[in-house]
What does this fold into?
Amino acid sequence: MNFFDKEFYNLINEFKTKSIINLYTHSLHKFKSCSIGMQKSFEKFFNQFPYWGKLDIQSENYEFIYLKAKTFKKHHKDYVWLYETLSDFKSKRILYSILNNFYNFNFEDLKTVKDKLHYFDLDLLPSIKNMVIVDVGAYTGDTVLDCIKTYNENYKKFYCFEITPSVCNDLENNLKDYKNIIIKNKAVSDKIETLFLKENSHASGNQITNAGDLPLQSTTLDLGIKEKIDLIKMDIEGAEEKALLGSVEHIKKDKPILLISVYHNNEDLYKLPQIIKSLNQGYKLYLRYYGGPYYATEIVLFAIPN
It folds into this structure.
């Protein structure tokens, strides 16, 4: 057992042996040890992106810390499963750093595990030659453009899904000079239905809901794309689970490479890897981290077929 294995299992042992209240109290103390400016930055961030629970310092509402503590206690075995399933040491190091950040508000570890080239880890994804690629949550085309730049436009076809009409206009404009790109203003989910757009102050945080003002048609990848898919990227603000469940046939038959955001709620970090392995055991799992040093976001699961 190396040093980081030992640190990971020591952390898990705390999750296992301490009560939810004790875990919460520990994390709350660590949070309050941060500077007031840092605490306010957290508050602003959580108000803009309310994925993990509430934070209102004035009213002493630290729901996000309590919900994390609850997750630590109830799902410590799931974190162990993920750690032992991950296929390289870098991924294990990243998982430990993420949990250490959530529990101890440790910022230094995140700095050491951050990668710069979002999604396109050349060790895990050395080529996209002749691939049919699906970008679910394409936003303004930033991922597509990074992909083309990194791999010199060797793809076969891109399907780009984006839920916000105004953003879709930017997406079309940004990608108009590139061939074989299909843009769809639809949500990707587990069934075809009418959903609604919930707008965020930042368009990248827009979500789909079951009620609202702006109707939006959803589709599934199994029904919406009939050809073989080689790679699927998903970054859709917490809707990744349903989108995966609407891609079951592709995942079982095509075994596409999966690049899945696993940070938009308190469960996806362990839950989405479990779903993927339940659908197809023939995947190796990796984690990569592209976020900032203060709160772990931009966590991407790489599922690579054997």
In short: The mean pLDDT is 95. The first strand starts at residue 132 and ends at 136. The chain has two domains: 3-113, 132-261.
